[in-house]
Write a structure and sequence with these properties.
The relative contact order is 0.12. The strands form 2 sheets. This protein has a 5-stranded antiparallel sheet with strand order 6-5-9-8-7. It folds into 2 domains: 8-130, Arc Repressor Mutant, subunit A (Orthogonal Bundle), CATH 1.10.10.2910; 172-260, Beta-Lactamase. The protein has helices spanning 8-22, 35-43, 77-93, 116-128, 131-138, 145-155, 159-169, 207-212, and strands at residues 45-49, 57-62, 66-71, 99-103, 174-180, 183-189, 223-226, 241-249, 254-260. The chain is of the alpha+beta class and 267 residues long.
């Protein structure tokens, strides 16, 4: 299904809340986004590591009383930072209740419904990759996972969150497809990406399909795929192509695919 997620008004509110928190400290570069300082500025939250087995992160806090964020040991730096930012998000966005929340890895893949987890992910992405720093580093640059890896490293975030943030701010005609096995879970299009993506299943003639069938590995760059493998309006007789970069994220058990219209596909 196409990504629905929280309403546009609510998404904007989540991003604004992240900006408001960042405004409490002076930040001029991605390396200055210090989550320990931001957690304390959000309401006296302290960050601790370890002590979790089945979950990635935990928030224990009460309104006007502060609390603690605990993050699982052994997470890579980007996932660790995104987990912490996600827990800060719940404290900031959902402040009228006491919290004792634990989050598993699946919670950090939820961007496609109107849940509190999707809201927390949007806030976390904006906190780690705020518009005023992220947009100048991403706009005008051709999409690829190599680019997203560089941005994720610079901002200290996860690949999926960086992809989502790139889709939000890019001026390229690009889309993100998230799938599990052959089943397409959800898609997100950049504003200028017009075609309707076919949602039946991953087509075997796509690079993602070849990866699923163990005929090839991750693409590791943008490659040409038949437009009919991804776009509804093209038949298998069409010779038109679309650019694709697909990667399997073993940690989540999901495939993420970037689709890019390098040239106009309209007839």
């Amino acid at each position: 299904m196409a990504l629905q997620g929280p309403s546009e008004m609510r998404q904007n509110a989540c991003r604004k809340a992240a900006h408001d928190l960042l405004a409490k400290v002076k930040i001029a570069a991605p390396s200055e986004i210090d989550l320990e300082i931001l957690a304390f500025a959000a309401g006296g939250l302290l960050i601790e590591e370890g002590g979790l087995e089945t979950s990635e992160g935990r928030l224990v806090a009460a309104p006007n009383m502060g609390g603690s964020i605990r993050v699982k040991s052994g997470l890579n730096p980007g996932r660790k930072r995104f987990t912490i930012a996600h827990e800060i998000a719940h404290f900031v966005l959902h402040p009228l209740v006491s919290h004792d929340r634990q989050h598993v890895r699946r919670d950090f893949t939820i961007w496609h419904d109107a849940s509190e987890e999707a809201e927390a992910n949007i806030f976390a992405a904006e906190l780690l990759m705020p518009e005023f720093l992220f947009k100048p580093r991403s706009r005008g640059r051709a999409p690829s996972f190599a680019l997203l890896d560089n941005l994720a490293d610079e901002f200290g975030s996860s690949t999926l969150a960086t992809a989502f943030q790139y889709l939000h701010y890019t001026n390229e005609q690009v889309a993100l497809v998230v799938s599990e096995g052959e089943r397409i879970l959800w898609t997100k299009k950049a504003r200028d990406f017009w075609p309707r993506i076919q949602m039946e299943r991953i087509h075997p003639h796509s690079a993602a399909g070849e990866r699923i069938a163990a005929k090839a590995g991750d693409t590791k760059k943008m490659v040409r795929s038949p437009a009919y493998a991804w776009i509804e309006s093209f038949s298998e007789n069409s010779e038109r192509e679309i650019m694709e970069d697909s990667r399997f994220i073993e940690y989540y058990g999901q495939m993420i695919t970037l689709l890019w219209m390098e040239e106009d596909l309209s007839d």
